Amino acid sequence: MTLEFEKVVEQVARMGRALAARSDSLSERSALAWERLALLSDVDAVRERVVLARVRDAGFRGAALLDEPANRAYPLPSLPPHATLLAADGSQVYPNPHGAALYYLINVGVFVYHHGTDALPEQITEPQLQYSETALHNTNGQLITNAVVNARRSVQELALLAREAWARAERAGPLLAISDGPLLFWMDKDVPDRKQLEDEYLGWLINLHDLHANRSARGESASLLGYVDRPASAFLIGLLHLMGLDEAEVRAPALKSNGDLEGLADQALLLRLLKPGERSALLVQQSPRNKDYHDKGERYEIACFYLNVSSEPPYHLARVEMPMWVAGDPALVDAAHALVYDQCQLMWRYPYALTRADELAVVRNQERAQLNELIEIELRRHAQEIAHSEKLDSKVVRHGRTRYGQGRQK
Fold first, then answer.
1. Strands (E) located in 102-208
2. Does pLDDT of 74 surpass 80?
3. Helix (H, G, I), strand (E, B) or coil at 22
4. Which residues contact 354 (CB under 8 A, 6 or more apart)?
5. Residue 366 — very low, low, confident or very high, per pLDDT cuts 50/70/90?
């Protein structure tokens, strides 16, 4: 059965009209947000309003400010002469109940880039194959979801990043550990080892702060950054909505949405403010998860700035996250700002080191097929029965491919 396009044409036409109307509405709201941003220069007034929202338990999920006005752009600082950047990324092979054996694989890659020296980059990978019953099933005996594997991968990424950063603790110049994605660790409620993973993740966060403290005694530093490409967040928009309310209106019902700014994201607003290489003010997301980090210690609360990583149009915005031990030190913020922007010029708007870490971590289809073949060989070596799912095999035949992703022989 194929798609009957004559039944879709009118729906596509309605979609086009709806999107055009939505675009006009967003343009009007964007103009209003820009007007409000221009007035947001009083940091103390912003703090008072955010505190009021907290006291009233109004469920505010926007941003708070540190010491910088939100309506200013902050210029690109000078590059440090030397620095060591470690970037981590991970990939996974999810459990497949239709395969010959039940397992999952997490592969983490770390790429080490030596800025300002002739030293060659370093490449580290750490694959971990999990096949035990306890690793693959929850307490009810059900097969774990993909979300569980993703959560465990996030912890392994930060763990390897921290270990490799400590291995270079004696290096001169700033040391930056960069993770792909947000630093606030979030996972589904159905992750069976949720509490353990949260504790492990925070433990590695603390471990990296200990590295910074160790290096600080010698006049050096260690920073942790999270790089978020194409952010869809609306932290600043939420703050603009809060500041647009009368004091009496700062209640939960008014903060369930962003009111007359609903539907806007920070990206479009800040691309209007930030020229190439400029960053936004430092922001602190107000969320229960970030409060948990703050309660563990103020140095672990997560802050961020937005950065125009382009050198020419069309411009591109990223969000750079950091713990408060970095955000509270202007020298560390400047180093992060300059080095991340420089990395993005090497790789067309995306950090070079993260690109290479992704290449190290990714498990390609051919490699996955080779792993499955290796597992089958090992099972036969131990006289284990190999049974494939008939459903999977039927899909293989239907798409004209073998189970290893190769063309069928004719």
1. 104-115, 122-130, 175-180
2. yes
3. helix
4. 87, 89, 111, 178, 180, 227, 343
5. very high
| CA dihedral sign of residues 134, 385, 363, 318 | negative
Q: In the prediction, which pLDDT does 378 show? A: 83
Digit-coded pLDDT (tens) for 137-170: 988 889 999 999 999 999 999 999 999 999 999 9
Report residue 22 CA to chain centroid gap: 28
Two tokens, residue 26: 């967003």
CA dihedral over 226, 228, 234, 236, signed as positive or negative: positive
- In the predicted model, what is the mean pLDDT of the chain? 90
DSSP string, 87-129: EEEEEEE---TTSSS--EEEEEEEEEEEETS-PPPEEEEEEEE
- Contacts for 129 with CB less than 8 Å, ≥ 6 apart: 103, 104, 105
Contact 306, 274 (CB under 8 A): yes
How many percent of the chain have pLDDT more than 90?
A: 74
In which residue are the tokens 């798609």 written?
Answer: 3
- Supply 246's token pair: 């009368």
What is the residue type of 66?
L
pLDDT the model gives residue 174? 96
Asked if pLDDT for residue 407 goes beyond 70, the answer is: no
Q: Identify how many contiguous H helices and E strands the chain contains and give both numbers.
A: 13, 9
Angle at the Cα of 184 (from 180 to 189), degrees rounded to 5?
110
Q: Distances from the Cα of 77 to the Cαs of 184, 324, 408, in angstroms?
A: 26, 20, 57
Provide the token pair at 204: 């590695």
CB atoms within 10 A of CB 390: 9
Please, are residues 169 and 211 in contact by the beta-carbon 8 Å criterion?
Answer: yes
Bridge partners (DSSP) listed for residue 83? 115
Residue whose pair of structure tokens reads 């499955």 in the numeric block: 372
Whether 83 and 107 have beta carbons less than 8 Å apart is answered as no
Q: Which amino acid is at 52?
A: L
Q: H or E stretch including 308?
A: strand 302-308
